[in-house]
Sequence to fold (246 residues):
Amino acid sequence: MKSENTLDVGPQHNDAKTHDYFDNFTPSYKPERFQFACDFINEQNRSDARLLDIGCGDGATLAMIQHETKLTNLVGMDIAPNYLLKASAAVGCDTIEGSILDDSLVDSYAGQFDYCTLGAVIHHLIGASRRESTSLGQRCVVNAIKLLRTGGHLIIFEPTYTPEWAATVAFNIKRFCTKFTSSRVELFQHWANFGEPVVSYYTPDMLRQFIVSAPANKILHFDEIDSYRFGGVLNRHGMAVIVQRT
Fold:
């Protein structure tokens, strides 16, 4: 299923658990975390620019950008067709059904956007191991930069955690729990749970390394915009990042 405004459909993804999670269980994250992005876009004063929201979900971030900036050429990308329908209905945007990890899909849109936004997506790109997941996170950043025109900007909000060993332990515990149940077992808050979905959080330094290792880019902004302590061990750092394709 796809919206009437869908631009293209990449290879179908048969990860039923991922589809189920994003279609049915993900809350609408607060779009206010992207206020820094709107401020930056307004400073650029480019009403003709084209923006792609990677992992757009139900379109909440796109709706905020539409309201807070002069941009009108907005596109959403997501693996979940149900969310693309919601985003298209909410914003009137075009949509791309597919994954940022789909190299052929990325190549077909390479160099077509002035802005790409990436909000809390990287930690959801999961491989069979922590190492493989880290490789997917880096590949996500590389592919996102490919989608930009020269001089374009990748704008990232990503929750990161320290210390690294605690984030690695959390990944392995969640991976272990999936051997016994495919259900969400919530812990304290709706986004904190054992089992599905498995996530792989990174430290701020690891996120920076993802960017530095990607070709043709310059970090313009790398800052912590919120933080708190979770469970007495993990420290959360909400990172706001702006990268320019050179």
Remarks:
- The longest strand covers residues 148-162.
